[in-house]
Amino acid sequence: MKCKALQSRTGRFAATVWGVASFASLASAAFAQDAPPIGASTLPRDLTPWGMFVNADPVVKGVLIGLVLASVVTWTVWLAKSIEIFFARRRLDAALKVLANIGSAQDAMDRPQEVEGEVVDFLSAAVTECAMSSGLPESEGIKERIASRLERLEARFGRRISRGTGVLATIGATAPFVGLFGTVWGIMNSFVGISKSHTTNLAVVAPGIAEALLATAFGLAAAIPAVVIYNVFARSIAGYRALLGDAAAEVMRLASRDLERPSVAAAAQRPGLRSLAAE
């Protein structure tokens, strides 16, 4: 009898323990399904670049907008200067091929369809100086004055083709530091959030860190293309200036050849040359 009573009590105890365990497991499962992870309700939902920009601090927004504008300026200058340098070098190449087969400056001026652009200005300067110095007996002084005119024209064309490339150097030098400023500001916001909430939860730190990294990325994205494009333009402009020097030297040879002809004084007074000098 005692054994049967003991078995009955043991069975009731086991049933009670099993019921409590079942209830606890069901409760924990329900809590796990309904309760969100810690900090999930306060974490930013959109961590895309646009979402981070929208939720960023006003100072960081200003930095990002400035870097985007700098990038737009960089690619605009690249497109405009690439087209300008391409056509300028093509004009000079074509003109040099024509000048190599011409015997005098006047013959070159009589072929406007083949000689154009900067070379026309070189020829006009040489013809103008010859016309203004037609009564002088010394030809060496005329050559020096022609060389001086050509030198100044060459410098002017070099400055003109370099116009706009300085902004690329400025962007390449300053964009990383502007992005670094946004990075520092984002980190400061993170520490301010930590101090206010008295916690190092990811929900507090993540937004500021994300803004900081975004500002760094934008700074590099603006600076790297600007530096690369500036170096490419520096080489292209150096080649263009070399072609200008070749064109000036070719025009100088034509002018020197004209000055050594016996009829140079009469040729300098021709109506075509006087009209060119007036222009």
Question: How would you summarize what this structure contains?
Answer:
This protein is an all-alpha fold and 279 residues long.
Q: Could you explain how this protein is built, in words?
A:
The chain is mainly α. Helix 3 packs antiparallel against helix 7, helix 5 packs antiparallel against helix 6 and helix 7 packs antiparallel against helix 8. The termini are far apart. The N terminus and C terminus are likely disordered.
List the helices and strands and how they pair.
Elements: H1 2-34, H2 49-54, H3 58-99, H4 105-109, H5 118-132, H6 139-162, H7 166-197, H8 202-259, H9 264-268, H10 271-278
Helix pairs in contact: 3-7, 3-8, 5-6, 5-8, 5-10, 6-8, 7-8
Characterize the biggest β-sheet.
Answer: none
Number of strands: 0
Structural class: mainly alpha
Residues in β-strands, percent: under 5%
User: How confident is the prediction overall: mean pLDDT?
Assistant: 74
Poorly predicted segments: 1-7, 13-44, 264-279
Distance between the termini: 136 Å
Number of helices: 10
